[in-house]
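Reminder to self: C-alpha cells first, then the designed residues, so the page reads top to bottom the way the pipeline ran.
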C-alpha cells in the first residue's frame, strides 16, 4: 500500500483554508511563461497537435513517475468516469481553446482572458460546495471583470478573445471537478486525465489538421519540454492538491497573477509592450486580487484569538474561560474563517 502524501490528503469536515503563497507564486509564474512557450512552439507545429503533445508528454511523465513510486491505480468505475470527464473538459477543451486564443491574440492579452477563472468560479463554488461569497468578494468580482473587458477592447474581441474565455471556463470546470477526486491517488489521476484528454486532442487534430507536420527544432523541443513537464505536469499536480485543501475562491484568485507574469515575460522576451488599455485592465484585475486575498481586520483578530487558545503540543483547541477548563479535540488546527 502506497503511503499517503500530505499534499495529496483531502481536507475532511469542510475545514478549508488558504493556499500556500510560495506554491501559488511558482505555479502562476510557470503558467505565465507557458504563453511564451505556446507562442514559440506554434512556429514549428500545428495548433491542435502541439496542444495534444503537451498533454500526452505531461501525462506520460507523471504516469512513469507514479509507476516508479508504486502509486495505486484507481479501481472504481466512478473514479474512471470522473477522470475521463475531467480530461475532456480540463485538457481537450481548455488546451485547444487556450492555444487558439494565443494564436489569435497578443500573448499578454491571451494570458489575461484565459485566466478569468477567479471571476467564473465564485457562484459554482457556492452552489456546489457551500463556499459563501461575501460582499467584498462580489466587489472584487466586478472590478476584475471590468478589467478583463478593458483588456479585450483593443483587440476588438473576436475569435481569439472568445477562445481564451472558453479556455477559462473549461479550466474553471476542471477545478470544480478536481475537488471531487477525493479517492484516487492525485498523481495517478492527474496523469490519466492528461492522457485521456490528450488522446482526444490527438484524434481531433488528426481530423482537422491531418498528419502531424512538426519541425523538431531545438526551439520546439525546449518549448514542448518546458510546457509539458513544468507548465503542465508539475503545476497541475500542485494545483489539484491545493484544490483539495483550499477554498476555491481564494485558490482561483491567485491566477490573477498569471497574466501579470505573462505580460511581463512577453514584454521582456517578445518585445510586446502593453498599451494603456491593457495596463489599466491589468491594474484592475490586480486590485481585485488584492481585495479578495487581503483578510479583514476582524478576521485576523479572530484567527489570532483562535490560535492563542490552542495547545501547541496536543493540537487541542481550548474553549471557554480558563476557570472552565474544558477542551475539544478537532481534526484541523481551527475552524477556517470565510475569506472576504
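Designed residues (340 positions):
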Amino acid at each position: 500500500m502506497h503511503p499517503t502524501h500530505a499534499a495529496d490528503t483531502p481536507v475532511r469536515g469542510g475545514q478549508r483554508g488558504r493556499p500556500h503563497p510560495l506554491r501559488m507564486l511558482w505555479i502562476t509564474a510557470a503558467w505565465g511563461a507557458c504563453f511564451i512557450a505556446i507562442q514559440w512552439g506554434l512556429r514549428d507545429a500545428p495548433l491542435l497537435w502541439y496542444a495534444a503533445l503537451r498533454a500526452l508528454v505531461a501525462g506520460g511523465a507523471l504516469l512513469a513517475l507514479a509507476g516508479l513510486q508504486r502509486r495505486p491505480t484507481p479501481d472504481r468505475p466512478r473514479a474512471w468516469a470522473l477522470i475521463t470527464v475531467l480530461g475532456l473538459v480540463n485538457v481537450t477543451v481548455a488546451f485547444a481553446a487556450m492555444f487558439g486564443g494565443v494564436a489569435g491574440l497578443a500573448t499578454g492579452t491571451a494570458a489575461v482572458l484565459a485566466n478569468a477563472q477567479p471571476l467564473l468560479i465564485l457562484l459554482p463554488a457556492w452552489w456546489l460546495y457551500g463556499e459563501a461569497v461575501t460582499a467584498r468578494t462580489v466587489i472584487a468580482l466586478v472590478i476584475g471583470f471590468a478589467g478583463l473587458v478593458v483588456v479585450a477592447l483593443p483587440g476588438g474581441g473576436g475569435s481569439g478573445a472568445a477562445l481564451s474565455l472558453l479556455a477559462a471556463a473549461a479550466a474553471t470546470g476542471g477545478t470544480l471537478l478536481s475537488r471531487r477526486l477525493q479517492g484516487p491517488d492525485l498523481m495517478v489521476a492527474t496523469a490519466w486525465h492528461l492522457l485521456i484528454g490528450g488522446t482526444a486532442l490527438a484524434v481531433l487534430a488528426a481530423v482537422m489538421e491531418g498528419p502531424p507536420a512538426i519541425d523538431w527544432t531545438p526551439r520546439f523541443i525546449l518549448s514542448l519540454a518546458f510546457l509539458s513537464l513544468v507548465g503542465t505536469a508539475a503545476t497541475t499536480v500542485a494545483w489539484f492538491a491545493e484544490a483539495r485543501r483550499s477554498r476555491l475562491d481564494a485558490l482561483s484568485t491567485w491566477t490573477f497573477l498569471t497574466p501579470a507574469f505573462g505580460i511581463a515575460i512577453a514584454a521582456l522576451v517578445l518585445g510586446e509592450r502593453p498599451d494603456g488599455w491593457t495596463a489599466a485592465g491589468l491594474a484592475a484585475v490586480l486590485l481585485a486580487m488584492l481585495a479578495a486575498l487581503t483578510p479583514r481586520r476582524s478576521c485576523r483578530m479572530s484567527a489570532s484569538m483562535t490560535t492563542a487558545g490552542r495547545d501547541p503540543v496536543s493540537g487541542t483547541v481550548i474553549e471557554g474561560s480558563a476557570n472552565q477548563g474544558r477542551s475539544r479535540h478537532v481534526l484541523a488546527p481551527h475552524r477556517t474563517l470565510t475569506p472576504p
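Residues 77-104 form the longest helix (28 residues).
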